[in-house]
Structure formats: structure tokens, C-alpha cells
Amino acid sequence: xxxxxxxxxxxxxxxxxxxxxxxxxxxxxxxxxxxxxxxxxxxxxxxxxxxxxxxxxxxxxxxxxxxxxxxxxxxxxxxxxxxxxxxxxxxxxxxxxxxxxxxxxxxxxxxxxxxxxxxxxxxxxxxxxxxxxxxxxxxxxxxxxxxxxxxxxxxxxxxxxxxxxxxxxxxxxxxxxxxxxxxxxxxxxxxxxxxxxxxxxxxxxxxxxxxxxxxxxxxxxxxxxxxxxxxxxxxxxxxxxxxxxxxxxxxxxxxxxxxxxxxxxxxxxxxxxxxxxxxxxxxxxxxxxxxxxxxxxxxxxxxxxxxxxxxxxxxxxxxxxxxxxxxxxxxxxxxxxxxxxxxxxxxxxxxxxxxxxxxxxxxxxxxxxxxxxxxxxxxxxxxxxxxxxxxxxxxxxxxxxxxxxxxxxxxxxxxxxxxxxxxxxxxxxxxxxxxxxxxxxxxxxxxxxxxxxxxxxxxxxxxxxxxxxxxxxxxxxxxxxxxxxxxxxxxxxxxxxxxxxxxxxxxxxxxxxxxxxxxxxxxxxx
Length: 526
Prior knowledge:
Layout lengths: L2 H12 L9 H8 L4 H10 L2 E7 L4 H5 L58 E2 L18 H8 L12 E2 L7 H6 L2 H8 E2 L6 E2 L6 H9 L1 E3 L2 E2 L6 H10 L71 H7 L4 E5 L2 H4 L38 H6 L3 E3 H10 L5 E5 L13 H16 L7 E7 L25 E4 L7 E3 L3 E2 H12 L6 H4 L19
Helix pairs in contact: 9-15, 13-14
């Protein structure tokens, strides 16, 4: 992805942005809000940064009704009277721009049978309990999310929430169908994307916000799904495939308006930048029968630096702790792209235990070095390292199964309880007094949010996600209103360890130092 592409697309798409956008000068001011004293204090007081990166939940979906115990203002669903603001009633519109009177509801979700809900945000717990897995997962591909946002109006999330099953349009169809034909062919409306959970449903997360720091203007890095946002966590950019077949690229950069929007759910944009999910070719991986090796991002093109490389060059250890890594590690140094001996493809017994496209480092040419050097570890190793005081300077933690909180069979409560166990392992270990833990989500999962994302360039930002800073030095009960995004995590790491930025994204990101108070006495987890 060259600077030429970046600038051309940036100017093209910035012209189409209207509502809810914050200008670049403000971003620069936010990024430089802290001074050298805070930088020095960070370096003197924090030796370990831990990033817990969960899956597919939006800010209002988890904190839409959060009330700060100290009265701090929160940018969420509540108005000054502490009620869900009536301005959100009737906001969602169908493909033709007509407001829904009642929400379309999924027939295959037991909790929504024989139920009528008005067109407004609602408490989700009675219908999809926070501790019960339901096979319902909103669609959130790159251009689809742009259309849901609809120039900052945030009014097409219900209309475009689900993809139609068993609909496979050809590349010619995508070029010749009218906008309405495409939208109606590839989308199915569903109302649960307006649902939110309350404190009683996910209490530990709300308790963390009470005691530590909640960011209410933290956005996913890139429009769309998991792969691109995982890559932005590692390198502040996505992968590229200059040899991607034409029929795997979106034929154009479509406008943002939902009625005029072609639904290109293809993996690459016109320039070959990865914008939707694809697995890596290097093991351990999973192959889809409708994909060929040429579809996947070639490791030899991913030679730019990521945060692991920056740390390595500085002589600092780092680790990606992935749940179930010990189960799939035997496939990590293999390269054959089919099943059998020497195959990088996980066997059918183990493929449900690991999600390859959630591990960004697996896309890089240096992947085998990362494995051999011990940077890929299990989450069981993290617990042991935390308790024994052996945490590396930077840790990334990724769930692989029911603990990831991914909608479907993965529940908020299972993920929350798992995160609590990780935090307790750190807080009870010898490194707690020198640790900062950042909890966030790769992307908003297609859930509606009340705040439109600023557009920094041709790729994002995407919707808001929950984000928490947990540390002995976090400002107690602070709601941080600075504009932040996935690049802010990189900025914090770079600031603490004196590393160069990876791209313009992290260079100008908010460093989150205003969320710390290094003059206070170190505090306990809760």
C-alpha cells in the first residue's frame, strides 16, 4: 500500500464525509495533548503492557446504559435524565429510506418468537441472554459497514445487518445490478443489532469502568471485520496482494450512500488491499473450498515492519498468547496448502480450536521466525508468566473459542469471566505494580452505535468498540473522551519503549497518557 494510493483514496473519500466527522487538526491536538513529564513517568512506572483483544462487540452494545458512579459524562444512549434518548427512536430505515415502525426480528432465534419491538434501542438480555449462545451473527464486511454508517447518519444497521444465505452473485452481477437489486439480494434486515446489555448482565466490565478508565470515543481501526483490524493492531495497516485476481477485487470504490451502494463483499479493494476476511497461507491455517492459494495475501509482499519487529529491533521481548496454541502448534512450521503430510492446514479435529485470521503475525514473511523465536505462545503460558513474574514487555492475548465473545455461540459472560481470570493472574503476580492492561475488541461486529466514526483515510475508522485501561496507575473512574482507535494501542507501546511509528495512523494517534495518574498511590484491581 503506497503513499500514492493512500493520498488519492483519502482525498476522494473525504469529500463524501459529512455528519459526525472530526477534522485532522483536532486529531493532531489530541495526539499531542500530553507532555514529556508524562512520557517519562510512563517509562519509569510501566514495564509491561498487556493487550486483551476480544471479538465483535460495540460500545453502546456493552456500555450504552453505563452510568459513572462519580457522575462523569458518558457518550452513550442515555440523556441528561438517565433514560435512553428518544432521538434514537425511529432512526433505522429500510433500503428505500423509509423508517421501520417495528423492528424485523429473526425467526430462528427462540427469544424473538412472537415478539414485537419498536424501532429503537432495547435491552437485549430477555431475548439473547448474555450467558447463552445463539447462532445469530451480524454481517459487517468493509463496504457493508460503510453503507450502514451511511455518511454518519448511522441509520442502515438494521436494513443491512445480515447477508442472505446461499446467494452467490457473479462479478458481472456486481457490476450490472442496480443498487437496490444488490442491497436486496445480499442483505436481510434484522433488529437485534440495536440491542444492548446492562450492568447486571456484564457486571465485571462495568466494575472495571468504575475503578479504572473507560474510553467512550475509541473506534475500530478499519471498516469491516476481524482480519483487517487484527492487522491494524500489529502494523497500523492491512495486507496487500498486488497479484489478486480481478474477480477477487471490488470493481470500484463505491460511494457511501446506502441507496447507491454496490455491495462488494470481495476480499480486496481495487488496489489489492485486503479489506475483508481471508485466512493466511502459512500454518496453522484453514482452507475454504471456494478459495485458491492465489486468493490469499502472499507473505512475500508483507515485508513492512509490524510492532513485533520494532520491539525485536529494540532488543525487547514480546508475545502473542493465543488460546489453544499448544493444540495447533504442530502445523506452524509447515507450508503445503492442502491436507496431508507436511500440510499447513489444520486437521478437521482441531480446526475449531483456532482462528487463523485472528492472528495478524501469521500473514508476514517472518512468521516462521516468530514461531521459532518463541513469540507465539498459549494463553496458559500467559497465566503462568503473569503469576511467576515472567511477562514480556508487551503481550497480546487472543481467545479462540467460546471465550472470545464473538456473537453466535460465544457469550459475553464467558468472555468476561475469562478476562477476569487473566486480570486476576496479573494482579496477584509480582508485576502488577508495573503493568498497564488494555482491553478492547477487534471491531464492533455489525452492532449499531450512536456515534458516527470519523474517517481518517480510505479505510476507516469503523464503529466504536468497548475499551478499558486497567492499571495500578489508571485514573479511577475516568471516562476518557479523547478520540482514540486501535492505533492508540500502538502509540502507547511506542511511547513507552521509544519506538518509531509504523504508519501515519499510529504516528498521529492519541497516546492515552491522559488516562494515567502516576502521582497516585498504586491501587488494587478492584
